[in-house]
Amino acid sequence: MTLAELDGLTADAARAEFLRCCGSARWAEGMARRRPFASKAGLLAAAEEEWALTGEKDRLEAFAAHPKIGGKDALREKFAATAQWAKGEQAGAAAADEATLDALARGNADYEARFGFIFIVCASGRSAAELLSSLRARLPNAREAELKTAAAEQAKITRLRLEKLLA
């Protein structure tokens, strides 16, 4: 879709497109209201500004829009789908060994139990082992610090998705 096409959508259609990029209804509504955008850079700047206006409830809503990583089959599907979507950036993650997949599944369960939301990380170009390392490094965080870290990761994911939307 082009920027002009995005700007020309109805408000409801624009919100739906923005929700594909970030699952926060408040963020998507804000982005739909800010149209038209003068440039891709303007769109990306607006996305950052709107994300900065969100609160914890909005951020948790965005996090919840991501598929929950659970068992090994779900992990394989997630990595395979992401690798496809990112055009091979994560091909190595799709071939992760059983021990890494087991550890990711356990780590994700521990993370959600500790923080009350799923592990959010911009996985583009990263292997399953790198993601596991990030998860383990973040588990000791205080909830407030982790919420900020997860929000920063969500912002990265949103930017990538907006770029793909306009590709």
Brief digest:
Helix content is 71%, strand content 0%. The chain has 167 residues and is mainly alpha-helical. It folds into two domains: 3-63, UraD-like (Orthogonal Bundle); 67-156, UraD-like (Orthogonal Bundle), CATH 1.10.3330.
What does this structure look like?
- Residues 81-92 have low confidence and may be disordered.
- With 167 residues, this protein is mostly helical.
- It has helices spanning 3-8, 11-21, 25-34, 40-52, 56-64, 72-85, 91-94, 98-115, 128-138, 143-165.
- α4 runs antiparallel to α10 and α5 packs across α10.
Summarize the amount of helix as a percent range. Answer: over 70%
The rough form would be described as elongated
**CATH architecture classification of the largest domain:** Orthogonal Bundle
Mean pLDDT: 88
The CATH class of the largest domain is identified as Mainly Alpha
Counting H and I runs of at least 4 residues, what is the number of helices?
10
Features:
UraD-like; 167 residues; 10 helices; mainly alpha; elongated
Would you spell out the secondary-structure blueprint of this structure?
Blueprint: H1 3-8, H2 11-21, H3 25-34, H4 40-52, H5 56-64, H6 72-85, H7 91-94, H8 98-115, H9 128-138, H10 143-165
Helix pairs in contact: 2-3, 2-10, 3-4, 4-10, 5-10, 8-9
